[in-house]
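Minutes, project check-in
Item: structure for the 120-residue chain
Input as provided by the requester:
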Amino acid sequence: MILLELFEAAMQRADTLYGVMEKLYGWYRKSIFFFFLMHPAFYFTLFVVIVTDKLNIYMIAILTLKIFDMFYKIELIKAIFIRRKIPDDLAAMLEWKIPSWFFLMGVGLYPPLLFYALIG
C-alpha cells in the first residue's frame, strides 16, 4: 500500500493544483480508464477486502475517501478543461502553491487505516 501511495503521489506531484489537474487530465484525455488506473491503491484495497473478507469501518473509510477523491478530481477536470467554467474561488485555489509534503498525506493516512482494518 505504501508503494502504491508513493506511486500515486509521484504521478500527481506538481507545484500547483492546476498542475495536478493538468497531469490527471492528460490521462483522462487518453481514456478515463487510464485515469482510473492511475489510482492503484484503490484497487489494492478492493483486492484486500475480497481476499481477507474484512469490510469494517476502516476499510469503508479507505474506500469512501478513495472514491470521493477520484470522482472529485473528475469533476474538477470537467470544470477546468471541458466545460471551462471555473468559479472565481476555485480559480484562485488553482494557483496556490502546494507544499511537497502534501502529496505524502496518502502515505500517512491509508496504510495505518489499512493496518487497523486488518487487525480489527
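Outcome recorded: The mean pLDDT is 94.
No further action items on this chain.
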